[in-house]
Design goal:
The complex is a heterodimer of chains A (262) and B (316). Chain A is mostly helical and 262 residues long. Chain A folds into two domains: 121 residues; 137 residues. In chain A, 74% of the residues lie in helices and 0% in strands. Chain B has 316 residues and is an alpha+beta fold. Chain B folds into two domains: 83 residues, no CATH class; 160 residues, no CATH class. In chain B, strands 1, 6, 7, 8, 13 and 14 form a six-stranded antiparallel sheet that branches. In chain B, strands 2-3-4-5 form a four-stranded antiparallel sheet, with no helix packed on it. In chain B, a hairpin with a 2-residue loop joins strand 4 and strand 5. The longest helix of chain B is centred in the last third of the chain and has 27 residues. Classes of the chains: A mainly alpha (262), B alpha+beta (316). At the A-B interface, helix 6 and helix 7 of A face helix 2, strand 4, strand 7 and helix 7 of B.
């Protein structure tokens, strides 16, 4: 079981290696196999999560390693879904960006900053609200990975047709991820905090950064939905939002102290 | 007036305020909040520390640079929502009320948060923290009496804490209101506007006493008991020697006495030194708890309606 995260990491890297040459093809043809490697990686990571959940008697979401495994699993699952769906135009660069992000998060998971020790959660973390809070936050952020890749590609692209497609992918990803992130990070997080500590909101650094992330995506949606802006500004907000989401997880955990320092 | 109202309900203002709150929030998260002024002088140059203290950035979320924009954001949100709602009403069948519902939920959330904060500040004595042992009683702010019936510290096989449970009884004027309720971590006792949370658990050294009818009583450092010659307050416990030191305040003045197993304190006899489990219970007062919950539910419904419809349109 200990080898499964490494196997998943290797599968994701292999998938990225297969995808890479196809990014430069002019005919837009996609590779036939990389998404199945992503599915295999998802199954391996899901097995890790399930095994650890059974071992500690609680959903394995309460440690840095477990969170990163869950996050990576959802990113590769979304990349697979995105590759196999037929409703939205498929852009290889978005799938590639998500694949690299999943590999990067798994690389962090294998580093010393994410201990692999299997520990059952402390009393404050034994809550159904916490499970919803963490899982939905990461699922929402998995969509933001796709929006980040699409927004970077939007800013880098000069082709108007491609820009339109990248904009649409970013919009759909944020449209799907935003309500999930809102429910997980803010609503269920606040409900859990109130049940555990008697306070909905404590202006803790993690809370502030989650709010800033939410505000960045709120600004994106207001620009995109209501002002109907399709220029660079919404993409900049989508990129800033994802960078804030990254800092909320890594920066606050390792650089700042607060209530979320478990 | 018209110009001011137009500016107040503009999305440009909303975006500027969102950006301001986000940027200042980021800066405030990087600076430790609520410390002594000497702390800021110790970590930054004096002119910068003076600026931080003058601007209120050391307690940013209670300062005017945060509260004024937050109030303006609330006004902007309310004005935007009212304006948007009235425009949507005129659209007939093509109306989209999802964003209106989200905004209504957010307004309710902000109102609940503000009024909750005001209620807590106007009732400071209605909140607090107490460490209670088995059999201890505490008077709640609303006059009810809470008695600890039993304490449990559940452990994992590796010895780490799994859950802390305080089983309590609540009564009022001698009448039992709640005969038995388990307050656990993440499972508070709610009684109207009061909530009681299992916040901590631990043990401390105590002097074990037996009373007249064989009743047991523990005395921790700082606690007192009324003895025949006056009030006796425990000042220290020596676990190695099994002794304790107490000060006795009586009509004849104050004196220090040493207590060992067999010592008599009024009608009590010292049995020795032991350990007693203590439950840390936090009491909070929030009469707007249901308002906040309702606001979350409204935001949830609004988000679902807005995005389900939008994604449906995209797929079409």
């Amino acid at each position: 079981m200990n080898a499964l995260p490494t196997i998943a990491f290797a599968l994701i890297l292999a998938s990225a290696a297969i995808q890479a040459p196809y990014l430069f093809r002019k005919d837009g043809k996609s590779d036939p196999a990389s998404h199945w490697l992503l599915m295999a990686a998802f199954l391996a990571l899901a097995a890790v999560s399930i095994y650890r959940s059974v071992a500690i008697g609680f959903p394995a979401l309460t440690g840095t390693f477990e969170s990163l495994v869950f996050f990576s699993a959802f990113i590769v699952l979304l990349a697979w879904i995105y590759r196999t769906q037929v409703r939205i135009v498929f852009l290889p660069l978005v799938q590639f960006g998500a694949t690299i992000a999943a590999a990067a998060f798994l690389a962090v998971a294998s580093s010393p900053i994410a201990p692999r020790e299997m520990l059952a959660p402390i009393p404050a973390l034994r809550s159904g609200w916490l499970v919803l809070h963490v899982s939905l936050s990461f699922i929402g952020e998995s969509f933001f990975v796709a929006s980040f890749a699409a927004s970077v590609a939007f800013l880098a692209s000069k082709d108007e047709r491609k820009k339109r497609d990248y904009d649409r992918i970013a919009y759909v990803s944020i449209g799907a991820g935003y309500p999930i992130f809102t429910a997980g990070a803010l609503v269920f997080g606040a409900i859990w905090a109130e049940q555990a500590w008697g306070s909905w909101w404590s202006w803790d650094p993690k809370e502030i950064w989650a709010l800033v992330t939410w505000l960045a995506y709120t600004a994106y949606l207001h620009l995109r939905l209501f002002r109907r802006r399709k220029d660079s500004l919404p993409s900049i907000f989508a990129i800033l939002g994802f960078l804030c989401a990254l800092f909320t997880f890594f920066g606050v955990n390792f650089l700042l102290t607060g209530l979320h320092s478990y | 007036m018209h110009v001011a109202l137009k500016a107040l309900k503009s999305m440009r203002l909303a975006l500027v305020l969102i950006a301001y709150i986000a940027v200042t929030g980021i800066l405030a998260s990087l600076l430790p909040q609520g410390r002594e002024s000497s702390f800021y002088y110790s970590i930054m140059p004096a002119p910068l520390a003076r600026l931080v203290l003058f601007s209120g950035f050391d307690d940013f979320y209670g300062s005017l640079p945060f509260l004024i924009p937050a109030l303006l954001f609330f006004a902007n949100l309310a004005a935007c929502s009212a304006d948007r709602f009235s425009r949507e009403l005129k659209k007939g069948k093509a109306r989209r009320h999802g964003p209106d519902i989200i905004h209504l939920g957010l307004i309710l959330l902000l109102l609940g948060a503000v009024f909750g904060q005001v209620a807590r500040q106007t009732h400071p004595s209605w909140q607090g923290f107490a460490r209670l042992g088995n059999g201890d009683a505490a008077r709640l702010p609303d006059g009810r009496l809470l008695v600890i019936k039993s304490l449990q510290n559940l452990k994992y096989p590796d010895g780490r804490d799994k859950d802390w449970i305080s089983t309590v009884e609540v009564s009022e004027a001698g009448k039992t209101l709640i005969s038995s309720y388990e307050i656990r971590v993440n499972h508070p006792l709610r009684m109207g506007s009061l909530s009681i949370f299992q916040a901590a658990f631990g043990s401390e050294r105590v002097l074990e006493l037996t009373g007249p009818a064989g009743s047991a009583r523990n005395l921790a450092v700082g606690e007192y008991i009324d003895a025949a010659d006056g009030r006796l307050t425990l000042t220290s416990i020596d676990p190695e020697g099994g002794t304790a030191i107490a000060s006795e305040e009586g009509a004849g003045g104050s004196k220090t006495i040493s207590l060992v197993a067999g010592s008599e304190i009024g009608s009590f006899t010292v049995e020795g030194v032991g350990e007693a489990e203590l439950s840390g219970l936090r009491v909070t007062y929030n009469p707007f708890y249901p308002v906040i919950l309702a606001a979350f539910a409204i935001v949830g419904v609004g988000v679902f309606i807005t995005f389900a419809r939008k994604l449906g349109e995209l797929e079409a």
